[in-house]
Amino acid sequence: MDRRSALKLIAGAGLGMGAAPLVSARTPSLDQPPNFVPADISPRRIIRQVVGLRPFREQGYVVRAERFDRRKTLVHHYGHGGAGVTMSWGTAVEAERALLAATNERSVAVLGCGVIGLTTALLLRRRGMDVTIYADALPPHTTSNIAGAVWGPSSLYRRHAVDEAFVERFVTAARVSQRAFQHYANDPRYGVYWLRQYDFSLRTPEGERTPSVLDDLYPGLIRHTDPDRWFGYPSVVENHVLMIDPDIYLRALMGDFENAGGRIVTARFEDARDISRLSERVIVNCTGLGARELFGDDELRPMAGQLTMLLPQPELDYAYSAFEGGILYMFPRKGSVVLGGTTDLDVADTVPSAEETARQLEGHARIARRLAGLERVGG
Ligand SMILES: Cc1cc2nc3c(=O)[nH]c(=O)nc-3n(C[C@H](O)[C@H](O)[C@H](O)COP(=O)(O)OP(=O)(O)OC[C@H]3O[C@@H](n4cnc5c(N)ncnc54)[C@H](O)[C@@H]3O)c2cc1C
Known about the structure:
- By secondary structure, the chain is of the alpha/beta class.
- The protein is built from 9 helices and 15 strands.
- Strands 1, 6, 7, 8, 11, 12, 13, 14 and 15 form a 9-stranded mixed sheet that branches.
- Strand 4 (107-111), helix 3 (115-126) and strand 5 form a beta-alpha-beta unit.
- The longest helix is centred in the middle third of the chain and has 21 residues, at 164-184.
- Flavin-adenine dinucleotide is lined by residues 1, 52, 54-55, 78, 80-86, 111-117, 135-137, 142-144, 146-150, 268-269, 286-290, 294, 305, 307.
- Flavin-adenine dinucleotide binds next to strand 1, helix 2, helix 3, helix 4 and strand 11.
């Protein structure tokens, strides 16, 4: 969700610099905010609080094929940090390519039934392969169900830890993935939809906004720099973003996979020996954070995120993020209003913190008062 960090990462990669922006940031002469219906933020409206652990690697996600158990092929596909839903179709295409380059076998075991396992399994099944998913947790009980699932590649890697080749792969995969989600937005069964989004910033902008190579994936991008009109915020970036409601989307993907003849088996693997007992000659590892224990990847680290779900408010038709001493983001879904968010690296505690809930409620209530015109930044 913290899209500004993602843009900074990409901008820092030098990819956007010097190139003509695909969509230019502009300040229209009539820079008037729309009528924002304020979110109704109150502890009485809380329906659920949840903490999920993002499978984060500074070095970015892993897609790699190797030999396993002498005659088998193991394709790793995990480590998507805070962007697993966002990247799922793009990196599944990478995983499929790695598999096809490594083996001609057609019988595949996919380990994991989060968004990465399901997407990969569906793609391979549509290639005509015989695919079985094995997983301990199925939707709605996966980390993927906890995802805010705002389309945006954030908390995916650290720029200092990856090379240019990785960044190029990442940009290609992000584009492939976003294009795939655009098609789902045309079908209400998948819970994918476009929403107006605002990044509210307390910082006065220095010069023109640096364009990013992924700007065109956020249509209608405008930067507003008139604090008098925009509730006192020195900079507001407006655009449109794809939202994915994971409960609806993952259930629909499971249905697509099973209707296409794929099988799903509930199973827990304690170690590699358990996996070697599977009859399939090709194994795709989509176990998310589980890959740390199962395959000994110490570079994979939990990054905790807490969300607070409020009763739905159907009249809300926008999302926002802000950084005000910590990240705050809000977006509406059919069944809830979602408040976030935290990105606590190396925290593996999944018990919601009352302190964080209070921070979110206070911060979002403050923003709601501003959007209602009752208060301004700094006053
Ligand atoms: C608060 C929060 C907000 C987020 N917001 C966004 C967002 O806005 N956009 C976005 O794109 N992403 C977001 N994410 C990140 C996203 O949730 C993850 O990147 C994604 O869920 C990773 O998917 P996965 O399939 O790899 O892992 P998971 O969903 O964790 O699935 C792993 C699967 O592997 C199985 N498994 C693991 N170990 C074993 C084992 N030993 N034996 C058997 N099965 C095993 C599990 O049971 C499960 O089925 C967010 C995450 C959090 C926590």
